[in-house]
Amino acid sequence: MTGNDTELETQIAEWRTYMLRRRALSGADVDELEDHLRERVADLTETGLRTDEAFLIAVKRMGRMDELSREFAREHSDRLWKQLVLTDDAPAEAARRRGLLVMIACAALAVLAVKLPALFGYGFDGSAEFYGRNLGLLVLAPLAVYFAWRRRVRRGTALALLGLFALGAVAANAYPLEGDSQSIVLTGIHLPLALWLVVGIAYAAGEWRSGQKRMDFIRFTGEWFIYFVLICLGGGVLTGITVGTFSAIGIDAETFISEWLVPCGGAAAVVVAAWLVEAKQSVIENMAPVLTRVFTPLFAVTLVAVLVAIALTTNAIDVERDMLILFDLLLVVVLGLVLYSISARDPGAPAGFFDWMQLALVVSALLIDVLVLIAITGRITEWGFTPNKSAALGENLVLFVNLAWSAWLYWGIVKGRKPFARLERWQTDYMPVYAAWAWIVVLAFPPIFAFA
User: Fold this and answer.
1) What is the distance between the alpha carbons of residues 126 and 104, in angstroms, rounded to a whole number?
2) Structural contact between residues 136 and 192, judged by C-beta atoms closer than 8 angstroms
3) Which of 216, 244, 327, 394 has its Cα between 20 and 30 A from that of 45?
4) Where are the domains of the chain?
5) Which of 76, 99, 95 is nearest to 23 (CA)?
């Protein structure tokens, strides 16, 4: 790819990011507009114009972005509040019906996947080890099927998805892991992460090398998580009402709830949440970036308070498994806040107060990561390597590299020395590192540590 091509892709990525924030434009709308934009740029460059000139002229000829958004708003005003209601557009209505039926089928497949093992003696009450290994596999495979259908993935991509899920199934069940081993816990944590990024390949229709597609999947992940949590909260209310109602007539509903309502509802919610995100199609403001604005200052203050407390008390960080998981989860949340602030930010906007807040958050997380790495290294030096400590060491090193370079890029952004697009590109390019590490833990750690 030439320098002109790289510059053009950066300009189109910034244009696309801006357009995706328009309330009246769906993801499909922006995809169509991007195709028209690329065609116009190609036509203009054939006449002898430079790519940057062709891009500016093409955008101008397509109309001002705000005017275009208002035009879509007038034509599709019902989508702002009724985007899930059927309209008189027969082809669109048929497509929505098909999408709804496929979602129901995939949700039913997820329910079947979590209940089918019971036929072989793996019930929810006595098979914690089996579900600890396989739950991520069972609920994410139907989600991958849903996106494979929705994106009409090519046969090669479908075979790759099938092969990766088969590899996950082998990794989860072929190794002779005991129920109390550290390796089985690590598999239960890392396999869903690895397979979630496989779902990302289905979401991107196999175009996983595209930084824009990865960023779109990051946006989807945040929205999906919010919808999934809301569905689970609603399910909790339903569960409470069910218990109270049946108790009032002298019936114990505990078995129904533990064996059917909770596991089946949770498995189906994985697919339903994805369908809701897709159905909404960015017509209204995405929630993940909004929540990022709320929680970034709170997490920044919390991390600074933790650092001050460590400095004043000189207490070392506890590196037992539960504490390692807690600190890693904290760092992952911080990384999520950074990602969703990036996904919603106008790349061309000047640095402001929120960028300084993001820099403070990243630097604080980086310092805590350094303290965790020091504590883990000390324990490994004293007691030797174990699966838990080795996985924690690797994960914190992976996070350290990401946070360190993100802090450096943020510093350049707030000082006006670096374009914001470099930070976005860094985050999307780094995603395969997480996938690679998750697969290493799942596939290599059990035999390396003799299945301990």
Assistant:
1) 29
2) yes
3) 216
4) 2-75, 89-279, 287-448
5) 76
